[in-house]
Amino acid sequence: MLTNWHKSVAERNKRKQHRDIAKLWLGKETMSKQAKVLSGAEIRKVLDYCATRKHSQRNRALVLIMFNTGMRVSEVASLRIKDVVDSEGNIKNEIRLLAENTKTNEARTVFVNEKLCKELQQYAKLLKNDNPNNKFFYSQKKDSDGFTANTLTQHFHYLYKRVGLDGASSHSSRRTFITTLANKGIGIRVIMGLSGHKAISSVQCYIDCNSELMRNAVENLAVV
């Protein structure tokens, strides 16, 4: 017969197991430990690793679109070829996200810089004969309609683990994108527009207050 002590231990273990599963499959972090912001050197390390593995072009494109647009993993997973590639086979410099595919349930435009356009164009060559309604990022699993939010989260979890980046998750690219914009002195309203946040307080939670950000603040200070 189980005692109250045994029941208490079993309940704690059950709660811990649920948290661990949620963190692994959904990429959720505790409030006290946010996803790691990656440096340029660390991102290059990830890209170097991708170059040595199967599906290298796809994985490179995935990493670069995440870090250069700040899109949520669910938004990237929802992209169809027709969302990214125009009728002439060129990468669009603006990607229109449907309301149904955003966390806020509001459509928004994602801007693609010139360098990312060139990178995605290389990857798109692999998809030139595919149906425009197919997912832009294919999954290697047979009979799969590309990545889902959960499988793409899992993909990045294991990618960063194999590279050896502790604390990194699929949310790292979004935090890195927002922090980099803040480091460059981009206004909070512009950052909100690019990231799709509706509240300033939400954006502030993403910004990593690092030495570069503080140095820029001091350098731009001119009281006399």
UniProtKB/TrEMBL annotation:
Magnesium as UniProt keyword: no
Sequence ranges assigned to domain Tyr recombinase in this UniProt record: 33-219
PROSITE patterns per record: TYR_RECOMBINASE
Coiled coil region boundaries: none
GO biological process, one term: DNA recombination
GO molecular function, one term: DNA binding
CDD domains: DNA_BRE_C
Keywords assigned: DNA integration, DNA recombination
Domain of life (superkingdom): Bacteria
Key word Disulfide bond present: no
InterPro entries for this protein: DNA_brk_join_enz, Integrase-like_cat_sf, Integrase_catalytic, Tyrosine_recombinase_XerCD
Gene3D superfamilies named in the record: Intergrase catalytic core
Alphabetical list of PANTHER family matching this protein: INTEGRASE_RECOMBINASE HI_1414-RELATED, PHAGE INTEGRASE-RELATED
Protein name (database record): Integrase/recombinase XerD
Organism of this sequence: Polynucleobacter sphagniphilus
